[in-house]
Specification:
- By secondary structure, the protein is of the alpha/beta class.
- The protein has two domains: 68 residues, 434 Repressor (Amino-terminal Domain) (Orthogonal Bundle), CATH 1.10.260.40; 189 residues, 2-Layer Sandwich (Endonuclease, Chain A), CATH 3.30.870.
- The chain is built from twelve helices and six strands.
- The N terminus is likely disordered.
- It comes from Streptomyces finlayi.
- GO terms for molecular function: DNA binding.
- This is Helix-turn-helix domain-containing protein.
Length: 274
């Protein structure tokens, strides 16, 4: 018996159709990229279902392939539960073989406990409603299921010490959050490093950063700010992002030292409850 192919996501169906139409038009990814005014790498991400084109890029694709608005109309149906700037990132996380993330002030979403995530969502909204917060917490929890597999993605997490010290949700929530990270590090599910305050200035002091690598496609880098994010696939930008990550990593504590610091910080928060 043959191995069953997993069900395709709507994005993958979109990408496969784009590839078929491109080949039928006799165009390479490079040629289509020139017509759409984007890189061949981006076209490959579209065709693999890892990213969706912007509405303007979808219209350019339709013009390049003479598809009479087909891809622009289909794009409107591919709604997402994530913010526009993050939707492609969430999709890429499910396909990455390696995720290397740096957090400047908050625990990364993939590692957040329900209590920690809930406290953040409440802080984001001046008049939060419980049902809205509950929905957001569920979405974030579901996103973290990408880590349920024993091997992939390989996960590296580097935290600025500020992440450990800022008490989000109160001492109990914070202690539970840090112990969860430490438990994952001890079990081998993530490689953990902390950039201590004593390092002073470091290469990632201005932003969080996520690097993702894939089995059959070029790596990407993602940075995020308030209500915005930038997913980069330009080889030069990805390379400079990786250099910045490596520089920061060279200043960070070892895995064991970081684990000990996270446990100690959790204990400090626990004592604050008393």
């Amino acid at each position: 018996m043959g191995t069953k192919r997993r069900a395709r996501t709507p994005r993958e169906k979109y990408g496969e159709e784009l590839k078929l139409r491109r080949i039928a038009a006799g165009l390479t990814q490079e040629a289509l990229g020139e017509m759409v005014v984007c890189s061949p790498t981006l076209i490959s991400h579209y065709e693999a279902g890892r990213r969706l084109p912007s509405p303007e890029d979808a219209r350019r694709i339709d013009r390049a392939l003479s598809t009479d608005g087909f891809f622009a109309r289909w794009l409107e149906d591919l709604d997402t539960k994530y913010a526009d700037h993050f939707a492609a990132v969430a999709e890429l996380e499910t396909q990455a073989t390696l995720i290397q993330q740096f957090a400047l002030s908050l625990v990364p979403g993939l590692l957040q406990t329900d209590g920690y995530a809930r406290a953040l969502f409440q802080a984001y909204r001046p008049n939060h409603r419980r049902e809205e917060v509950d929905k957001d917490v569920v979405i974030r929890t579901e996103r973290a299921r990408v880590l349920d597999g024993p091997l992939h993605p390989v996960l590296w997490t580097m935290l600025d010490e500020a992440v450990l010290r800022r008490c989000v949700g109160g001492p109990q929530v914070m202690a539970q959050q840090l112990n969860k990270i430490a438990d994952m590090a001890e079990s081998g599910r993530l490689r953990l490093h902390v950039l201590p305050f004593g390092v002073g200035a470091h290469s990632l002091q201005e932003s969080l950063l996520t690097l993702m690598s894939f089995a059959d496609s070029a790596p990407v880098a993602y940075v995020e700010g308030f209500q915005t994010g930038n997913l980069m696939d330009d080889p030069g930008l990805v390379a400079s992002s990786r250099t910045a990550y490596d520089l920061a990593l060279s200043d960070a504590l070892s895995h064991q030292e970081s684990l000990a610091l996270v446990r100690a910080a959790a204990e400090e928060h626990e004592h604050d409850q008393q």
